[in-house]
């Protein structure tokens, strides 16, 4: 069982659904990305400010397992926890449908830092995230 360290509630918008009436698969990536960004902001980390200082956090690998679909109007909770693997920050992210708490998507997002054009470990992010590493 994951020890989630952050969660964000959202709601499916009509335009995110495809012809089948379910959320298009690409939109789940938007949901989990938005969750990571909000997690960073909650810890006073701004992508824009990092970029201005020559630090770019980028996705190196992303895997998603689709379990049950969301439909227009569904409310859901996007949750995450984080672990460190070498220079990678690995975000484990799950989305749950709020009405029945069913797992919708399981995702693993491996991110790395490019500092001044070089793959590097970030002392700043290590210090910020270390209390959360599992």
Helix content: 10-25%
What shape does the CA trace take?
A: elongated
Would you list the SSEs in sequence order as H and E?
EHHEEEEEH
Q: CATH class, anyone? A: Alpha Beta
Quickly list its features.
elongated; six-stranded antiparallel β-sheet; 134 residues; Thiol Ester Dehydrase, Chain A; alpha+beta
What does this structure look like?
With 134 residues, the protein is an alpha+beta fold. It has one domain: Hotdog Thioesterase (Thiol Ester Dehydrase, Chain A), CATH 3.10.129. Helix content is 23%, strand content 41%. It has 3 helices and 6 strands, in the order βααβββββα. Strands 1, 2, 3, 4, 5 and 6 form a 6-stranded antiparallel β-sheet that branches. It is elongated, with a radius of gyration of 16 Å.
């Amino acid at each position: 069982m994951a020890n989630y360290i952050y969660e964000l509630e959202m709601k499916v918008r009509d335009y995110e659904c495809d012809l089948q009436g379910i959320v298009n698969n690409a939109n789940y990536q938007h949901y989990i990305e938005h969750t990571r960004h909000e997690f960073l902001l909650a810890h006073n980390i701004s992508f824009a400010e990092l970029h201005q200082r020559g630090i770019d956090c980028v996705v190196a690998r992303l895997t998603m397992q689709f379990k049950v679909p969301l439909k227009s109007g569904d409310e859901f909770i996007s949750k995450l926890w984080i672990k460190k693997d070498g220079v990678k920050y690995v975000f484990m992210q799950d989305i749950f449908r709020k009405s029945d708490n069913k797992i919708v998507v399981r995702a693993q997002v491996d991110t790395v830092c490019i500092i001044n054009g070089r793959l590097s470990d970030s002392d700043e992010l290590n210090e910020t995230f270390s209390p959360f590493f599992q």
